[in-house]
Design brief:
3-stranded mixed β-sheet; alpha/beta; 338 residues; globular; 7-stranded parallel β-sheet; 13 strands
């Protein structure tokens, strides 16, 4: 049954103004915090670990907590109307469940669980690219605690995933590329900037329609559902060509090889649990998502238009990726994903 603002209790405000972020100093969290602050409509609080030295956006409120003490989290979250969680892959679902429990006890009604990935409505893809267990556990923790949730399904972060050959298969510093199959399978991918804009746009919508005649987009349309966004629909070939434009190179200047996608995925699975487990995870995650007809392209579900997100310039994003890749050094997905 549809809910309308006109029917809510006296004093109801049909907008979110107080937002807390776990991971506000991380890769995507800082872009979300920046974008929210720029709206001028939100008070943003960073839930930080006591003693954390993470650099945070100017204007953000900090609330240091002891993650081992749930009551510390509860006190920090009281009064917040929405909680964004962006925890590192290494944090695990157990750590996120503690945050969910604290959010519920603090009276936070709505959360954005750690996801920021592929299509959660495609169970086969989520299971086979190894992200399903963690993402579904985060959603289950929200539901168990009576929280509304909305995941951001942005697929892989574009600049981030070009920082290592373990991800999109493109090694910018060493000018080498490994294409999965023919490298022509397109998938959705998003920049950190677009993720930040999407979070700010979503949280600037009305919570629900004012009445039966209100046809504006509202947050309630994505209550307990995924929010699909993207910057580009691109294949590895498209990405490599974009990198070439930035660097002024061609394939002749690079070492480019093609590998069987299924074989690379299977080889990645064999590395799991060993000293190169992080590499195995990355190989499974990315290679499986690039399988032909594998579900990596969810462009028919994206809501960029409803959120009024801009069409980005791929070459500009590739230039940022090049800058990051040249500074990144060796990369471990499990340590750096959020």
């Amino acid at each position: 049954m549809a809910q309308y603002a006109k029917n809510q209790a006296a004093g109801f405000v049909n907008y979110i103004s107080k937002v807390a972020i776990v991971g506000a100093g991380g890769n995507v969290g800082k872009h979300m915090a920046d974008a929210l602050l720029q709206t001028g409509k939100h008070t943003v609080t960073a839930i930080t670990r006591i003693g954390s030295k993470s650099e945070l956006p100017k204007g953000i409120i900090t609330a240091p907590v002891n993650y081992a003490d749930e009551e510390s989290l509860v006190q920090a979250l009281k009064g917040q109307e929405f909680l964004i969680i962006s925890m590192a892959v290494s944090g695990g679902a157990a750590a996120e469940a503690i945050v969910m429990s604290a959010a519920a006890k603090a009276g936070v009604p709505w959360v954005m669980p750690t996801c920021y990935g592929t299509d959660i409505e495609n169970r086969k893809l989520m299971d086979e690219n190894l992200t399903g267990r963690g993402v579904y556990a985060n959603i289950e923790a929200a539901e168990k605690n009576g929280l509304s949730w909305t995941t951001m399904n942005c697929s892989f972060w574009y600049e981030f995933s070009l920082m290592s050959s373990n991800c999109y298969g493109i090694d910018i510093p060493n000018r080498s590329a490994t294409l999965f199959g023919d490298g022509e399978v397109p998938i959705c991918t998003s920049t950190w900037l677009q993720c930040g804009r999407a979070a700010a746009a979503f949280l600037s919508l009305k919570i629900m329609p004012e009445d039966e005649t209100d046809k504006d987009a509202t947050m309630s349309q994505w209550r307990n559902k995924p929010l699909f966004i993207q910057s580009f629909v691109a294949s590895q070939r498209d990405m490599l060509d974009s990198i070439h434009k930035v660097l002024g190179t061609t394939d002749a200047d690079w070492t480019v090889e093609k590998v069987d996608a299924q074989e690379r995925y299977d080889a990645g699975k064999k590395l799991l649990g060993g000293p190169e487990g992080y590499k195995g995870f990355s190989h499974c995650l990315y290679t499986r998502t690039f399988f032909k007809d594998g579900g990596g392209d969810f462009s028919d579900k994206v809501v960029n238009k409803a959120l009024r997100l801009p069409q980005e310039d791929m070459e500009e994003a590739s230039r940022r990726a090049v800058d990051l890749a040249m500074k990144a050094g060796e990369f471990s997905y499990s340590k750096g994903a959020h």
